[in-house]
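Long-time lurker. I teach an intro course on protein structure, and each term I like to show students one example going from raw sequence to a predicted 3D structure in token notation. This year I'd like something fresh instead of my usual example. Would anyone be willing to generate the tokens for the chain below so I can use it in lecture? Attribution to the forum is fine with me.
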Amino acid sequence: MRFFNIICMLVLFQFCSHSIDTNTTHYVDKNASGSNDGASWTNAWESLSDIEWDQIQPGDVLYISGGTDSTVYNEQLNIQASGSAVNLITIRNSYEANHNGRVIIDLVDFSEDGIIIGTSASANPDYIYIKGLEIRRGDHGVHIRYACEVITLDSLIITNNYRRGLRFAGDSNPCCQTLPGYAADNLLLMNSIIITPNDLDSETDVMYLQHASNIIIKNNFLHCRNKSPVNNHSDVIQSNAIRNLKVFNNVMISDSNAQGMPQITGAWDIPGDGVIDSVIIYNNFMYGGGLWYGVDAPWVAGLNPAWANRYPHDTPPTFIAHNTIITHGPTVAAVHVQVPGVLFINNILAQFGDGLAVGDWLPNFRTSPTTYADSTRHNLIWTEWPGNSNRLFQGYVSGNGITGQCYDWNTWENTYGGTGVGENPLLVSPIGSIPSDEQGNITGELQSNSPAINAGEDIQALIESIGLPWEDVDGNARNESPDSVTIGAYNPPWLR
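-- Reply from a regular --
Happy to contribute to a lecture. Here you go:
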């Protein structure tokens, strides 16, 4: 359902007719045969490398022709102009007849990045808005580097790239080595689809974030498919040494035997700089299909709030709410928390499987620091296989004035005063019977008799106070009364 919704949004966003206030419009069409000056469709620049970037000014729009059905550009788009805070440069597909087909950037042999923004410490474009393009078979699909600021990626389809679908990282710039400097700032990724290849001997993250700040990831379908046994750490979202991250209303799927996690977040708050950073993970569906190939498989988790271990730092406050995190199989926990200061409310954490396959069948909720019952509230935490009933939790818990080990739901609830639900969430998707090549269709929708319905905490005021919408992962308003909030990312079916 969510994948279908994203496709529908992309059709709407890519091809709707509307006017754009702009200073000048420019055109690229590989099939044009005019004066090649970019001034009209007739005289359009005939390749992406023909673009004369010094002609493109703040507020300008660059249209790329997709022909009547689709047009493939077998070359890199290297952006070399900057907009301004009030006048972005827009680079997008066209909605005009004869040019409103799919715009496809296809590097074919993974030799170059599909789109690159920032080629050196002195060439780092800012204030760029990119919309409606497809990128495939590059080294990275989209690569944003150095001190680039205010980059919006909207309605993109990024598939089958060799390393990462999207890399937003301020590497190779001296400022990112000196606290509190950051080389990349203000990224918005929305309404997009990013899918990695199925079998490549490379670390093929869907998205990699490093030395960057103020990142928003919303309304996307993100799917890691790489099952190559020679790669490792292929995650849906992997971040390290970042500041201020918001991830909401996304679907993140890591196929069975993809050696990575739906989300691993390494973030930091730099002491003494006067800025309070945060990590917010809200209203997402995350699925990890487990590692089924034996005892040497690395441990993974559906969600891993992790240490960013490069420089001295504090850990930022982390807020995790209304996510549905589903795992199936060995060597995968639902959540592994490695940082303190986490507020964890109204999430579904469910592990499926029989516990019999080769490999280590991990506890559901793993924590390295102490988990506090008063900040871990009204979550559904459940494991299917009976042998894990006494390994539901791993780590120390503090509640009711007691601190100690906690392994099962009874201890969580009756010893430490924990709240929530310890039952099967009753999903619509038949977890465990969906082939690996169809796992992109899995959702966290609930059956009408799910125990997650009406079992959550009313946090509407908190959600809206931090600028987030009180809605489900599909973008539907949560039409619930304060005493009937549903746990997880999905509303009950009759509320849709």
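Some talking points for your students: Residues 272-288+295-496 form one domain. The helical segments are 2-15, 409-414, 460-465.
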